[in-house]
Amino acid sequence: MRLSPAITELMRALRTLPGVGPKSAQRMAFQILERQRDAGLQLAQALSEAIERVGHCSVCRTLTESEICELCANEGRRQAGLLCIVETPADVLAIEQTGQYQGCYFVLMGHLSPLDGIGPEDIGLDKLAERLANESVAEIILATNPTIEGEATAHYIAELARQHSIQTSRIAHGVPVGGELEYVDQATLGHAFSGRKRIDFDAF
Amino acid sequence: MRLSPAITELMRALRTLPGVGPKSAQRMAFQILERQRDAGLQLAQALSEAIERVGHCSVCRTLTESEICELCANEGRRQAGLLCIVETPADVLAIEQTGQYQGCYFVLMGHLSPLDGIGPEDIGLDKLAERLANESVAEIILATNPTIEGEATAHYIAELARQHSIQTSRIAHGVPVGGELEYVDQATLGHAFSGRKRIDFDAF
Ligand SMILES: [Zn+2]
Ligand SMILES: [Zn+2]
């Protein structure tokens, strides 16, 4: 049997969402049509409006519907002179949730990937070079993902920072807090050893 | 930090979908805005169109954008004289996927639930009574869920069928095919025993 075309098309469109398979799409479509039509219309409107309004911050490239995002517009953060480089807006959110960082961000919206034809300008590094030349940045913190592409991207940016004589650091990789050594992968455990810190007995 | 309002509203709207929590909604919103804007617009349109066009079949009450759904319009099925009663359109799909049934359906779009104020007319039983009076139905198959409400609803409809002298059956409950007894719940195992079938040795 075939469902009517509008239902079939709704299920197909729902499957484009990450993590939504055929079964979930069917459940979503029926739930909307059976008892959540108002919520469904609101979702349609939220999608259209977000897609129409949300662009990129002209300073840090993150997603925002303003010309300059809230964090870039924050005078206190700008004066801190710290610039954290991340791959995605979700990374900004994750770091903000730690409450540990009070500086600015630069969001690559991806990473270098020569095989996919993604070069420095595709991830805004021309814009970043311009900022490093014109702003007073005390330290760059490289928070790209601990993947091959993320490491290569971090390496490239570290080189760029060196040309502008800016101090640069990479976030620490190691055993997750609360994690058990037994379940930590080899690469992470390797990082945990090579990045070990001398215990400062005076601090106890 | 606050995300811009259009992104926040999109995440809120996505969370109204079944099975979507805050974390999934965030991932969906970012994925749409970062690299699936066309798919996002298509989803918005599919939602609006389905909600506008899809109503209920005037014969069986299932979701359809036609006046009469494909299954009710099928002459061969109508002549079979079988009417299967289910709670939802998803149940119709599930039964159709077995390929075992070639009759018609009546979709309650719910079940009797006096505590929630859901009575016979809310699940279309007035319409069903009318059909039983005017159509030639040889057998009613009750396929409501094996829940308290589903059983009560099945019972109510069985009574209605008796008034019209129509033969009525309930789908069998028991141990799922491929299931292990050890992992089957008590109620199901109880049904499996009370519904046991005598082995017909002639059939071997
Ligand atoms: Zn910004
Ligand atoms: Zn129908």
Automatic annotation (TrEMBL), chains A, B:
<dbReference type="InterPro" id="IPR000093">
    <property type="entry name" value="DNA_Rcmb_RecR"/>
</dbReference>
<dbReference type="InterPro" id="IPR015967">
    <property type="entry name" value="Rcmb_RecR_Znf"/>
</dbReference>
<dbReference type="GO" id="GO:0006310">
    <property type="term" value="P:DNA recombination"/>
</dbReference>
<dbReference type="InterPro" id="IPR034137">
    <property type="entry name" value="TOPRIM_RecR"/>
</dbReference>
<protein>
    <recommendedName>
        <fullName>Recombination protein RecR</fullName>
    </recommendedName>
</protein>
<dbReference type="Pfam" id="PF21176">
    <property type="entry name" value="RecR_HhH"/>
</dbReference>
<keyword id="KW-0227">DNA damage</keyword>
<feature type="domain" description="Toprim">
    <location>
        <begin position="81"/>
        <end position="176"/>
    </location>
</feature>
<keyword id="KW-0863">Zinc-finger</keyword>
<feature type="zinc finger region" description="C4-type">
    <location>
        <begin position="57"/>
        <end position="72"/>
    </location>
</feature>
<dbReference type="InterPro" id="IPR023627">
    <property type="entry name" value="Rcmb_RecR"/>
</dbReference>
<dbReference type="GO" id="GO:0008270">
    <property type="term" value="F:zinc ion binding"/>
</dbReference>
<dbReference type="GO" id="GO:0006281">
    <property type="term" value="P:DNA repair"/>
</dbReference>
<keyword id="KW-0234">DNA repair</keyword>
<keyword id="KW-0862">Zinc</keyword>
<keyword id="KW-0479">Metal-binding</keyword>
<dbReference type="Pfam" id="PF13662">
    <property type="entry name" value="Toprim_4"/>
</dbReference>
<dbReference type="InterPro" id="IPR006171">
    <property type="entry name" value="TOPRIM_dom"/>
</dbReference>
<comment type="function">
    <text>May play a role in DNA repair. It seems to be involved in an RecBC-independent recombinational process of DNA repair. It may act with RecF and RecO.</text>
</comment>
<dbReference type="Pfam" id="PF21175">
    <property type="entry name" value="RecR_C"/>
</dbReference>
<dbReference type="Pfam" id="PF02132">
    <property type="entry name" value="RecR_ZnF"/>
</dbReference>
<dbReference type="GO" id="GO:0003677">
    <property type="term" value="F:DNA binding"/>
</dbReference>
<comment type="similarity">
    <text>Belongs to the RecR family.</text>
</comment>
<keyword id="KW-0233">DNA recombination</keyword>
